[in-house]
Specification:
The complex is a heterodimer of chains A (295) and B (524).
Chain A lengths: L2 E12 L2 E12 L3 E5 L6 H8 L7 E6 L8 H5 L2 E4 L11 H11 L5 H10 L13 H13 L5 E5 L7 H16 L3 E5 L3 H7 L2 E6 L2 E7 H6 L2 E8 L10 E6 L2 E7 L3 H11 L1 E7 L3 H15 L1
Parallel strand pairs in A: 3-7, 3-8, 5-6, 6-7
Antiparallel strand pairs in A: 1-2, 1-4, 8-9, 10-12, 10-13, 11-12
Chain B lengths: L4 H12 L2 H23 L3 H13 L1 H7 L7 H28 L1 H6 L1 H6 L7 H28 L3 H28 L3 H25 L9 H7 L11 H21 L22 H31 L10 H10 L7 H17 L1 H15 L2 H6 L5 H31 L2 H9 L1 H18 L4 H22 L7 H4 L17 H23 L4
Helix pairs in contact in B: 1-8, 2-5, 2-8, 2-21, 4-10, 5-8, 5-9, 5-10, 8-9, 9-10, 9-11, 9-12, 10-13, 13-15, 13-18, 15-18, 15-20, 16-18, 16-20, 16-21, 18-19, 18-20, 20-21, 20-23
The chains are: A alpha/beta (295), B mainly alpha (524).
Bound molecules: adenosine-5'-triphosphate (ATP) and magnesium ion (MG).
Keywords (chain B): Membrane, Transmembrane, Transmembrane helix
Protein name (chain B): ABC-2 type transport system permease protein
Protein name (chain A): ABC-2 type transport system ATP-binding protein
Chain lengths: 295, 524
């Protein structure tokens, strides 16, 4: 079996509000899959449906070959989950929570647990109510990474981690991948997505707008050009976001129009030219912003 | 230091705008409704005076209700329901003040508010202003209800003041407890403990005839006001003093501790645990504090109430009211007044214990709302196992506390096994409430807390208090509330398993329906 998660035409409505509106998501076994989208796009809702905590209104959802609603318990033996907002039992210590979650998942690797505690610099003897947000997240992360789950579902797992811990987290994910585990990673941290994810899905308003490898997605986007010309700026019908200041011009252009645009510029005469490849930020801004106009 | 108090107060009022009017109205109905009822039942001064004399002689009843101070319709209405009003209002005061102080801190909302232009003492002040204001309002509403029913103005006002005083004392006690402990539940537990002790002291005072003991109990002070009797306003002074003192201490502590913390710093705990291996063992960790608190409380209550059993005198069985009393609480003419008293105590222990499973089951909802259930249910733990663990502990816990109280009550009363049996028969009736709790949690999770508290109040007030006011015959309660169906094994009835089996079946059916609904619904 080479798809860990397969979601087709998923709908979820809360009363009259449609949180998910025909979402598709495919996560292949063994990959780290980035799950992105603006606030309120429906990432956590999708994850909660994948965990069988909520029921889909309609659509097909397959998780590790099973139905997450009906076979929740069996499927959970094979996955570990880290919520975005980790709430722990105030009276238990971090170590107790890690052991509890590990045991419930069918045991955890004691030496790996120690190693992870050390790498994440987490004191397991503190009561959960005294942990900071980042430390609570570390508790859930250690419990997840020390388990022998084949699928990790991580919902914004690093939103409270400092940069040092963020890099420990990234190393851990890479190791998990090397061990052949599948990771679904919802995140707003683009550098994290860029360095970890094999493929990403971008969703907006409950719908998948883009899915593929980062290289594929980049291809769909625009190059930013800044040029200083010898004469007045010519007509540039392919340009987006055009800004002219005297003989200086800045604009974006789709890859397939790049050649035409640069030719038109050179007809006037180019004094200086910089071109920036589309950054991940540009890629996301495009999707995230168009949501505003969509609403 | 108190900047923003008014804005916070309006926020509190907004959040309480539905609940507070409800209980204020409920208490006013308890006060004036009872009086209206008695006015119909006892149309002449003679008939009410006869009734008063019979009741005053019945130590088993005066222990519960207090001394008779005025053989008039108003006086007897106060006698009948005032203790319930004082106690319920005190409980409401505790819940309200803790909800808006420690509860807010626990949820993290206080932090959000505290970062705004809000003085350090503003949240406490806002909570105190609202709660104390509500206590004054409740007293006034009750007084007005009595006056408009046509009773003496001075007596009505002193009755209102006695009600307010009970509420104010426990507003202060609750505010102080909220500063001392680290969690809202612990604060409620601590304040409720004070309320319980205060109740027992008052009960003992009236049950034993050592009435001076009442000066040691906050509810005793309200009783000592003697509305429609000699209106002893001086008894309000210790109440006001204690309310002021506890509030002042709360301010002192609030100024010294950090937001979100208690006074006792956290010590490091174990680095891991081999014992936490199942949802049940986790549930046990979460419930054991509550269970220990209730067990100790019930053990002490059993001892005190049992010791009183030896001093219950026999009374003449001629009067109509005594006959009705015996009809309700004894099943054979041979049963003595002490037997009736012991059965009343066993019943009361059951009525109060009905809160235990409801509180225990509300943890489920809290776990769900605060996201911890999600963490647990993303492991191979099924919803059934998760909720089942809590349900098991709710059932076993309520059985345990009743057993503990039965033992100490029996030992102190000198009939260990018999009395133990009398408290153990309460178990299935208490369990019915557990069934209601599970049903609410599964089917109507958002309303679960409201339904649980309402069920508890309803069961406690319907048969003895609300039903009679609404003109519903006491024996109707049998069809609505489980407790009157129990075999009165302490006062002459043969043990019969029938009603207990029916209650167990109801519990199983409700729990089953609740758990099935839980399996099907989305988790918050
Ligand atoms: N229980 C609920 N009842 C009603 N609406 C809900 C519920 N849960 C989620 N929603 C709505 O569904 C939408 C999707 O929310 P979701 O939490 O899945 O977003 P998200 O992509 O995880 O956002 P974020 O990046 O902020 O975490 C939101 O508009 C939210 O308001
Ligand atoms: Mg989210």
């Amino acid at each position: 079996m080479n798809t860990a998660i397969s979601v087709q035409a998923l709908h979820k409505s809360f009363g009259r509000a449609h949180a998910l509106d025909g979402l598709d998501l495919t996560v292949r076994t063994g990959e780290v899959h980035g799950f992105l989208g603006p606030n309120g796009a429906g990432k956590s809702t999708t994850i909660r449906i994948l965990l069988g905590l909520m029921r889909a209104t309609s659509g097909r959802v397959t998780l590790l070959g099973g139905d997450p609603w009906r076979q929740a318990t069996e499927l959970h033996r094979r996955l570990a989950y880290v919520p975005g907002d980790v709430n722990l039992w105030p009276a238990l210590t971090g170590g107790e929570v890690i052991d509890l979650l590990g045991r419930l998942r069918g045991g955890l690797d004691a030496s790996r647990r120690e190693e992870l505690l050390e790498r994440f610099e987490l004191d397991p003897r503190k009561k959960a109510k005294t942990y900071s947000k980042g430390n609570r997240q570390k508790v859930a992360l250690v419990a997840a990474f020390a388990s022998d789950a084949e699928l990790l579902i991580l919902d914004e797992p690093t939103s409270g981690l400092d940069p040092l811990m963020e890099s420990v987290f990234q190393q851990c994910v890479v190791e998990e991948k090397q061990r052949g585990r599948t990771v679904l990673l919802s995140s707003h941290i683009l550098s994290e997505v860029e360095s970890l994810c094999d493929r990403v899905s971008i969703i907006r308003a409950g719908r998948t707008v883009e899915s593929g490898t980062l290289a594929e997605l980049r291809h769909l986007t625009m190059t930013r050009i800044t040029a200083e010309l010898a004469g007045p700026v010519p007509e540039l019908p392919w340009a987006g976001g055009l800004v002219t200041e005297g003989r200086r011009v800045t604009f974006q252009v789709a890859d397939h129009d790049l050649d035409k645009a640069v030719r038109r510029l050179s007809e006037t005469g180019i004094v200086a030219l910089t071109s920036q490849p589309p950054s991940l930020e540009d890629l996301f801004m495009r999707h995230y912003e168009s949501e505003k106009s969509a609403r | 230091m108190t900047t923003g108090t008014w804005r916070l107060t309006t926020l509190v009022i907004r959040r309480e705008r539905l609940i507070a009017p409800f209980w204020m109205a409920l208490l006013a109905v308890l006060a004036a409704g009872q009086a209206g009822r008695y006015a119909q039942s006892f149309p002449t001064a003679r008939s009410i005076a006869d009734f008063a004399r019979e009741m005053a002689a019945n130590r088993a009843l005066t222990a519960f209700a207090g001394e008779v101070h005025s053989p008039t319709v108003a006086g007897m209405a106060v006698w009948k329901n005032a203790d319930a009003i004082y106690t319920v209002l005190a409980l409401i005061a505790i819940l309200t003040i803790v909800r808006h102080t420690r509860g807010e801190e626990e949820s993290g909302r206080a932090e959000l508010v505290g970062a705004g232009v809000i003085g350090r003492f503003a949240p406490l002040t806002a909570a105190l202003v609202f709660t104390a204001g509500a206590m004054v309002a409740t007293g006034l509403i009750c007084a007005l209800a009595m006056i408009s029913t046509g009773f003496d103005v001075t007596g009505s006002l002193s009755f209102g003041a006695a009600i307010t005083a009970a509420g104010l004392v426990f507003t202060g006690v609750g505010a102080l407890a909220a500063q001392l402990t680290e969690g809202a539940r612990a604060a409620i537990g601590l304040a409720a403990l004070v309320l319980g002790v205060s109740y027992l002291v008052r009960f003992t005072a009236d049950g034993s005839g050592l009435t001076w003991l009442k000066w040691l109990s906050p509810q005793g002070w309200s009783h000592l006001v003697r509305p429609y009797g000699d209106d002893n306003w001086a008894a309000l002074l210790p109440a006001l003093a204690l309310a002021a003192l506890t509030a002042a201490l709360a301010y002192l502590l609030a100024g010294r501790r950090d937001l979100g913390h208690g006074l006792i710093p956290q010590r490091p705990g174990p680095a891991g645990s081999a014992r936490l291996r199942s949802p049940l063992s986790l549930a046990w960790r979460l419930h054991r504090g509550l269970l220990a608190g209730w067990s100790v409380g019930y053990a002490v209550a059993g001892l005190v109430l049992g010791a009183l059993a030896r001093s219950i005198p026999e009374v003449s069985r001629q009067g109509a009211s005594v006959q009705e009393f015996l009809r309700r609480y004894t099943a054979s003419p041979e049963a003595s007044m002490t037997d009736a008293y012991l059965w009343l105590i066993a019943l009361s222990l059951g009525y109060v214990a009905a809160l235990y499973p409801l509180l225990a089951l509300l943890r489920l909802r809290k776990e769900e709302l605060e996201g911890r259930a999600e963490l647990l249910l993303a492991t191979p733990v099924s919803r059934l196992r998760w909720a089942g663990g809590h349900l098991f502990l709710a059932l076993a816990g309520s059985a345990l506390i009743l057993a503990v109280a039965g033992l100490t009550l029996g030992l102190a009363a000198g009939d260990p096994l018999g009395v133990l049996g009398g408290t153990l028969v309460q178990i299935p009736a208490v369990w019915v409430l557990a069934g209601v709790g599970v049903l609410a949690f599964g089917l109507l999770p958002r309303a679960a807390a409201g339904i649980s508290w309402a069920a508890f109040l309803f069961v406690n007030l319907f048969g003895e208090v609300l039903g009679p006011i609404m003109g519903i015959d006491y024996w109707i309660a049998k069809y609505v509330v489980p407790f009157p169906n129990l075999p009165m094994v302490l006062s002459g009835e043969e043990f019969g398993a029938g009603p207990l089996l029916v209650m167990t079946v109801i519990t199983i059916a409700c729990s089953g329906a609740g758990l099935t609904a839980l399996k099907r619904r989305a988790l918050a």
